[in-house]
Amino acid sequence: MLFQPELETQAPEERAERGAERLRSLVERLARSDSPYWREKLAGVEVGAIRSLGDLSSLPFSAKAELRDTYPFGSLAVPLAQTVRIHASSGTRGKPTIVAYTARDVEIFAEVNARAIGCAGGTPADVLHVAYGYGLFTGGLGLHYGGERLGATVVPASGGNVQLQLELLADLGASGICCTPSFALLLGERAAESGLRERIALRYGVLGAEPWSEGLREKIQEAWGGGFAACDIYGLSEVMGPGVAMECREGRGALHVFDDHFLPEIVDVESGEPLAAGETGELVLTTLTKEAFPVLRYRTGDVTRFVEGPCPCGRTHRRIARFSGRVDDMLVIRGVNVFPSAIEAALLDDPALGGQYAIVVDRRGTLPELEVHAELQPGADRELVERRLRERLAARLRVRVDVVLGEAGSLPRQELGKAKRVFERTGERDEFQQLLRSP
Ligand SMILES: [Zn+2]
Questions:
Q1: 306 alpha carbon to ligand 1 midpoint, in Å?
Q2: In 3D, which of 24, 84, 13 has the Cα closest to residue 49?
């Protein structure tokens, strides 16, 4: 369902024109703001030179470290008295990043999440079960306000207590669930075990806050049965929270970026230059409408590419592919950027291969070589599968890859979720051989 049909199906040129106006007034406002952070950031920028969205690339990037360094309110662009809410991103080390919202920011936060729930198939008549954590984390309140804005009946279940959650899903008749993909699977499995599965009629899931594969999507959809659509929601607290981009149920595999509020660019990880359509790089986001805590050209660290062409759902928001990893995971092989997740995807696409794999970066020569180990399913034609995989990897990664196929069960099993997939091999040390030899 389209929550804001006129905005969601707006002609892209019209949206771009409006976006350029918004960008100009944002930069104008920030350059005049009291914040030393913004005055310094925009020091050499000539505001009058921003005429179209194409001029965006003349603006400086911003990065997570800057936001951390200005903890807590250094990049706040309005007086604190004008804000109505604080959230924080989970700091992996040290202090979290604090983000603040004005009343208007909270309104837009709710609107984009209402759109996102609509993308998954949500309607105002639904009971919507929100099992994201409530609190400083943006997930719970973000989808909660989104659900209310849509007109749904929101159940603020938050995390934990699986049995109670299942009973609520059954008794209150929820049609939609918002939670992490791993929690959606856990609930689905427990629902089957506890016998409550038949009494639960979920149609869709708004699933995010952690990376998840197509394989996991299949498992979740299987656990919840035929009509259930597991859709990917994307966001980050530095930009807003959930609702920056959303996969629609008609066009699964790519996410609509709500680009009237969040302007996406995809840039080369090293040079920062914008990439041509279809090329994979780092997603960079600019908030066009945020008041309290805007970001300019924020380096998300998330890796994706633009997906061109119309979406069957009718929305005209630009689409990005589901994420193929983090910039931090990137390998550089003979000058080419390689993402381990792209190798994983190629392997999972071949039914003749099992799910286990290992990637070895062989650094013994002058230039690093890439070696992929996988397991052949019983009965498959080794030579054929090997050639097929080598060709597929070469085409997708644009770098030559050696393929080594073992029997099913030949690769070491590691604890799920923490599996190490990339191993270094140097003259002194071979991590993969060490793993094979370890008990
Ligand atoms: Zn769509």
A1: 14
A2: 24
Q: How far is the CA of 311 from the centre of ligand 1 (A)?
A: 5
pLDDT in tens, 397-425: 889 999 999 998 888 876 544 568 899 99
- Looking up tokens 């913004």, which residue turns up? 38
The DSSP code for 80 is G
Ligand 1 centroid–CA 251 distance in Å is: 5
β partners of residue 147: none
Distances 62 to 65, 297, 349, 370, 394 between C-alpha atoms, Å: 9, 6, 36, 33, 34
The stretch 174-198 carries a mean pLDDT of 95
Q: Is residue 128 within 8 Å of residue 178, measured between CB atoms?
A: yes
Interatomic CA distance for residues 88 and 192, integer angstroms: 36
Angle at 84 between CA 83 and CA 90, to 5 degrees: 90
The rounded Å distance from CA 205 to ligand 1 centre is 16
- Nearest-angstrom CA–CA distance, 187 and 411: 30
Structure tokens that stand for 36 in this block: 């030393």
| Domains within the chain, CATH numbers bracketed | 98-326 (3.40.50.12780), 331-437 (3.30.300.30)
Residues facing residue 255 across a β-bridge: 247, 320
One-letter amino acid of 255: L
CA 154 to ligand 1 center in whole angstroms: 24
Please write the tens of the pLDDT for every residue from 211-258: 888 888 998 999 999 799 999 999 999 999 999 999 999 999 999 999
Element containing residue 298 per DSSP (H, E):
strand 298-304
Q: 363: CA distance to ligand 1 center in Å?
A: 43
Residue 93 has pLDDT above 80, yes or no: no
